[in-house]
Predict the structure.
Amino acid sequence: MLLFGISGACIAGVPLALMLMIQSFRTASLDRQLNHYRELEEQGLYLNVWMLKKDINAGEKVKRADLEKHRQWVSEKDSIKIADISQISGKAAVKALKKGTMIETEMFYPKTKKKLKNKS
């Protein structure tokens, strides 16, 4: 009877050992992939950014037609504030901007809100 128990444990132990080896290999593979992603993250990312198609003078309002979307490599070290098209369309430039400039939110004055008339 003891012989059947020992042989049963050995038969069950082989697949279990095999599963543990496979799991160990997968874990090591995932660790390598995670380290690779961390290296890429430190280097930067490709982002969609808006760039000027033409020169804009200080105080001139930018139109959607003046902008084009580009994919650009941006790293954390750049510390830029990427602008969304809805945040900049119709705003006036703080200073003169050259064609090909990557658009950031602080390059434009905030939109002014219309004053409400008091109904007295």
